[in-house]
Amino acid sequence: MATPRTASTVTVYSGGVPGNMQEESRRNSRNEEAVSAQEGSNGSGHWDEKAPTAGCKHDDEKKVAEVKTEESSQGGWKDEDITFPDGGFRAWMVVAGAMCCTFSTFGFANTWGVFQSYYETDLLSNTSPSTIAWIGSIQYALVFIPGVVTGRLVDLGYFRIPFSVGTAFVIIATFLIAQCTKYWQFLLCQGIFLGLGAGICFGATLPVVGHWFSKRRGLALGLTAFGSSCGGTVYPIAARQLIPRVGFPWTIRILGFMIVATLGFSNLTLARRLPPKNMPGGIFNVGVFKNAAFSIYCTSAFVCFLGIYTVLTYIDVAATRIGISPEFSFYLVSIANASAGPSRVLTGILADRFGAVNVIVPMTWIAAALTFAWPYATTQSSLIAIAVLYGLSNAAFVSSFNMPLYEMGEMGDVGRRIGTVMMFSAVGALVGPPISGAINRKTGGLEAVSYYAGESGF
Known about the structure:
mainly alpha; Growth Hormone, Chain: A; disordered N terminus; 458 residues
């Protein structure tokens, strides 16, 4: 008599094999081959496929049909059916690729404060600071906005094509910046094209990292965010050292070659692992806002991003206003980003242990308090202290605000959830720095700017 087994195992029979059982055996073999092919196509077999039995008859056939219908409507697998490597060479190579991605996408965006100061004093000296700030704001915003589309594409199984397209956008836009001389050219190349490419890459990377980690997901995402700290440290120093020696155009080209190397490595190492899952609702799922926790979290992210980048955008401008040499003020952004690096990794470890929200909230309050104090730092040493402490506290929010989203629904829909929150965050990142610039222009000082930006953190 046949012993029914799942589709992912071989059915074993004792005695003779009647004709109808031979047909069942062939069907089971085909099911087994299909499951094996699916596992191979995703680079690993770390999920447990629990398909209904193919050899059940009579009453069991009705149950099997019901199970198949339910699984089909949910995309073919459930969260409780999957396991995660949570380590191993392949998983950590994915993290390494994600670090290289954030190094040259989010990390390059975090360098904007240096460009803001340089453009104000040199290339775009006839343009108001608030107008120049729109370049950085659009770049920041576009690092987040494409996530609502790319995250959904990753859920559906499409990672390689959008990531390659984003890589091409970033590289081409960077080399075009070297040729720019007018405001509209910088706005188009650095603000729009570079930001869009970085956003496509960044939005596709975060869900993919989650495919490989569960219990150690906070650490993996913390290391991913650490890449942006490294980029935000290296790129400003490189720009500051190279511009006087080789000029602005060749400085940008050298930075472009660094981006080619890092994003090239990301393209080689990043990969999906879980099978695609088609959740209902389209690219933008309005139904997710029925979850009160998700709606509140979305609103909080938007408000925080209204002021989160104000200090990093204007800290070197503030330094030159109180008499600190431009040669040193350039390094304040790098100091803040360097101090953020260890914080991002530590935040990930603490988030795995205590929960991401329990770590994010107090650290965001500290960042807000430092924003209030920032304009009253009138010496070089006090500004260094602000840069270090702000980098530590600000990094906790920026590196971890996506972590709770993995727990607010099914893994098959995590890309869309992340993309939705990133889209709302983008609006805050877009309008925040120009609002700060307008307040600065109207009041002639940074005190009122700090009140606006600090309140957004609370």
